[in-house]
Design goal:
Strand order of the largest sheet: 1-3-2
Number of domains: 2
Helix content: 40-55%
Structural class: mainly alpha
Strand content: 5-15%
Number of helices: 7
Number of strands: 5
Distance between the termini: 39 Å
Radius of gyration: 22 Å
Order of helices and strands: HEEEEEHHHHHH
């Protein structure tokens, strides 16, 4: 075995975490496994402005305010704002990549909407089960959904906003209800 899966450790004090990482390194080395210290991150909660790296065994571990773990943004605030805004950014990038070949093509509208549901919505909603949603985050999700549908339907965004002023946000009912 050349590598092991990701591991998360929790500790109340940095010194305890350093000891735990050292023990893990010693125990795993007997099986021929190595810890990649450049990929290892320490997140302090609450965030502190102390050193930017910590010496652990034979490597340096970076102390960060946020990092991506299994596709989700983990930050020192513990909230969902960063996660949701990151997912919106990723979904917007996917929409833009497909703009010329799919959204602006002569493909049937039904097919375009199916492609949106199949390829874009999962990127947008990945990890939504763990989000603590607020009115602000729901409005950002709804704004993205409106923007995406405008691109697909080739309707100016502002025109769509005027048509939808009185409606309830689409995202709440369509994506966030289990």
């Amino acid at each position: 075995m050349d590598f092991a899966d990701d591991v998360s450790l929790l500790a109340e004090m940095l010194e305890v975490l350093v000891i735990a990482l050292t023990v893990i390194q010693e125990d795993t080395s007997t099986f021929g496994l190595r810890i990649n210290w450049s990929k290892t991150k320490i997140l302090q909660v609450p965030s502190s402005t102390s050193s930017s790296t910590v010496q652990v065994a034979d490597g340096h571990v970076e102390v960060v305010d946020a990092f991506v773990y299994l596709g989700c943004l983990i930050d020192s605030s513990g909230g969902s704002r960063g996660k949701v805004l990151r997912r919106i950014g990723l979904a917007r990038s996917c929409m833009n990549i497909l703009a010329r070949r799919i959204w602006k093509s002569s493909i049937r509208l039904e097919t375009k909407l199916h492609l949106y549901q199949t390829y874009i919505v999962p990127v947008l909603m990945y990890g939504c089960e763990t989000w603590a949603t607020t009115k602000y985050l729901l409005s950002r999700l709804d704004a993205f959904n409106t923007w995406a549908l405008c691109k697909i339907l080739t309707i100016p965004y502002l025109a769509m906003c005027q048509m939808r002023k009185s409606e309830e946000p689409l995202v709440v009912h369509r994506f966030l209800t289990w």
